[in-house]
Amino acid sequence: MKTLLILLALISPLSAAEVGQASPKLSTLVGGKIPDTAGKVVVIDFWASWCAPCKASFPALNRLHDKYAAKGVVIIGVGVDDDPAKHTAFVNKTGAKFPTVHDANKKAAAVFSPPAMPTTYIIDRKGVIRHVHQGFKGAKTEAAYAAEIEALLK
Known about the structure:
Elements: H1 2-11, E1 41-47, H2 52-68, E2 73-79, H3 84-94, E3 100-102, H4 107-112, E4 119-123, E5 129-134, H5 139-153
Parallel strand pairs: 1-2, 2-3
Antiparallel strand pairs: 1-4, 4-5
Helix pairs in contact: 2-5
């Protein structure tokens, strides 16, 4: 029984970041420079270099950054690769226009507990998680992000 409880604790987090909850403070969890997010709509995207949908999502995130950064939207990519070189190579290859950080110690991943790669959290100006997206399905997902961002900017 004790082994089962330990196993369950390892595979199911006690408190994952969910819609309606205050977003965990990313700046306290990862190294690297996190932009000021106070009073802004924030998009936090967890990704890994080995994840094909993650590669497909970066052009969409770049377009969203171009369209909404001046309107008060901050997009932050959180890479969970073990190897820092793979993290850096992915960021360089995808040409990320938004800030990215390497969650080398998996502290942010442990607190947010993304269920898949990529997982994207869209957070309102008050710091409350309003939307969580698992995976990336091209234009459909990008359109959903844009609609949700637009609604939160109003």
